[in-house]
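ARCHIVE CARD
Drawer: 12
Card no.: 0347
Subject: one protein chain, sequence and derived structure
Cross-reference: see card 0346
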Amino acid sequence: METRPKGILIVTIIVFIAALLALIVGITIFVPGTPLDMIWTLKNSFPTGFRSSSIGMIFGYFILILGLILISAVLGLLKGMKWAWWVVLIVFLVNGIGDFISVIFGGGVKGISGVLIVSAFIIYLTRPNVKKYFEENQTK
């Protein structure tokens, strides 16, 4: 068994933060009136009443499920599980595609920086030593 590459801990921390944010946002949709409602005033690009609409509820469920999947992936990354590597890689790819589409439609610096950051994570996760670590841990 190969030792865990140092960068995996960084990826894991970032995925953990994203999972926590997804869970918090999801919870605020279903439990309004908490101090967490402040999140919706920071940068709210959703229309008024979104949180109580059917689409808002579907979005809330999606975000909660995504948060739970990412929390599971965090645990899997720490254990070197290949499925967790795939989950995180797919999430980064989807995020990168979204950022790239944003750039095409005038996303500017935010979209470009998103593409660059996600690209760096994808390049790191697909490096031979990182892939090898996740492949070797499948025999546990």
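Annotation on reverse: The chain has a mean pLDDT of 86. Residues 23 and 65 are 8 Å apart (CA to CA).
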